[in-house]
Design goal:
The chain has about 100 residues and is mainly alpha-helical. The protein is about 60% helix and about 10% strand. The chain is built from four helices and two strands; from the N terminus they run αααββα. A two-stranded antiparallel ribbon has the order 1-2. Helix 2 crosses helix 3. The chain is elongated, with a radius of gyration of 17 Å. The relative contact order is 0.13.
């Protein structure tokens, strides 16, 4: 399935493809598409994405922007995890109404 997903991702930012379209074309769930894209990125393939879809880029600025976007999501998740730890420690501000 890795190759099938890879072959659908264009090497042109003007011809992006969405996870939804890949999902429909291959008959798999969007979560599986994201899994395979993550595997590609982890193996060094510069898959970039935004709201318009995925594309493979050799443009270092696009890759840097992708890294920054991913780091922002990591930071947001770390903040949410920290808040849940506060709740577990009895220091959260949850009010049950």
């Amino acid at each position: 399935m890795y190759d099938a997903v890879f072959n659908l991702i264009p090497c042109n930012e003007q011809q992006r493809i969405t996870a939804a379209k890949i999902s429909r074309l291959l008959g798999i769930k969007e979560a599986e598409v994201r899994h395979w894209v993550n595997r590609m990125r982890s193996s060094g393939i510069p898959v970039c994405s935004d709201r318009r879809g995925y594309y493979i880029s050799n443009n270092t600025e696009h890759v840097k922007m992708q890294i920054a976007s991913m780091e922002n999501r990591i930071n947001a998740m770390q903040n949410a995890i920290g808040g849940l730890h506060l709740f577990l420690a009895g220091k959260g501000s949850y009010v049950n109404t």
